[in-house]
Design brief:
The chain has 207 residues and is an alpha+beta fold. The chain has 2 domains: 25-151, Immunoglobulin-like (Sandwich); 166-206, no CATH class. It has helices at 86-90, 121-126, 155-160, 195-206, and strands at residues 2-4, 17-19, 31-40, 48-55, 61-66, 77-78, 82-85, 98-104, 112-119, 130-132, 141-151.
Length: 207
């Protein structure tokens, strides 16, 4: 779906367009993918990051994860551990294409694309961990390591499994919250209208 953006200060059609693409999420797969990504780029200057994209169609990609920005150490870029549900990457199709796109960070916000790789969950499960970039910068090695797939348990599953929960409350008594005698203060002395007390009761009743 494509819609025109509207602005009262501009002529009709002069404010750009918004593209809306739907993605139906199938099943209730709670499998979690865990891995680290490292890359050997010929240009080790500057700060790099990557985006992981999910394939929506042959020409449409949806970003589902953005890494932190890192510098090269001993000639190699290495990013933090990634934990993400496989359903976020490919729904229920392990052969659905995943794109990992690499960028050199720029202060202007116009980050420089330095290539991408494509893979899928089936390949990672089979032990294919090394890939070469394609796109604007080619033949740069990207490696997946510490690859583990396991079930991500829900909060209720932990509770049913015997996990015990304790509630600890801390209240910030600072002057910025206002005079306790003022009804607009978070520390208002009326126990029926005190916002801190209401929040503690709400959380406490659930736990």
């Amino acid at each position: 779906m494509i819609k025109d953006l509207e602005c009262n200060d501009r002529a009709a059609g002069a404010s750009g367009k918004i593209h809306i693409t739907g993605d139906e999420k199938e099943g209730r797969n709670n499998e979690e993918a865990n891995f680290r990504i490292t890359a050997n780029f010929s240009d080790t200057s500057g700060y790099n990051f990557f985006l992981i994209h999910k394939s929506i169609s042959n020409t449409t990609w949806k970003p589902v994860y953005k890494s932190e920005i890192q510098t090269a150490i001993h000639g190699k870029f290495s990013w933090n551990h990634v934990s993400i549900l496989t359903s976020e990457l490919c729904n229920e199709d392990p052969e659905r294409e995943i794109r990992v796109e690499f960028f050199k960070s720029q202060k202007s916000g116009k980050h420089k694309n330095i290539g991408f790789i494509t893979c899928n969950i089936a390949q990672l499960k089979e032990g294919t961990y090394n890939y070469m970039t394609i796109g604007k910068v080619k033949n740069q090695q990207v490696t997946f390591s510490n690859v583990v797939f396991h079930k991500r348990y829900s909060f209720l599953e932990y509770i049913f499994g015997g996990c015990e929960i304790q509630l600890t409350c801390a209240i910030d008594f600072t002057l910025s919250n206002g005079n306790p005698a003022d009804k607009d203060s978070l520390h208002y002395l009326d126990m029926k209208k005190n916002e801190y007390l209401s929040a503690i009761k709400s959380v406490g009743n659930i736990l």
